[in-house]
Amino acid sequence: MSVAKGTAIYVYDSNGTLVNTFSSGRKAAEHFDCSHPTILKYSINGLVFKGQWVLSTSLISKQS
Predict the structure, then answer these.
(1) What's the pLDDT tens digit per position in 13-63?
(2) 3-state secondary structure of 56
(3) What is the DSSP string of 27-50?
(4) Which residues does 50 contact at the CB level (< 8 Å), separation at least 6?
(5) Where are the domains of the chain?
(6) How far is 53 from 5, CA to CA, in rounded Å?
(7) Residue 20 CB: number of other CB atoms within 10 A?
């Protein structure tokens, strides 16, 4: 899976609540003080980032 240039990155907490949105992976990388490829890897694979954040390239609808 590839991620388009300027793809928004959505940051969720462990409860699935949206806590931040970045206009691009580079902006997210600047915020988290890491590399752009690291942000993309976590957003594509759905792995837990820094032990507490879930990164995604799409908004996740929370079911009530």
Answers:
(1) 989 999 999 999 999 999 999 999 999 999 999 889 999 999 999 887 665
(2) strand
(3) HHHHHHTS-HHHHHHHHHHTPEET
(4) 32
(5) 9-56
(6) 22
(7) 14
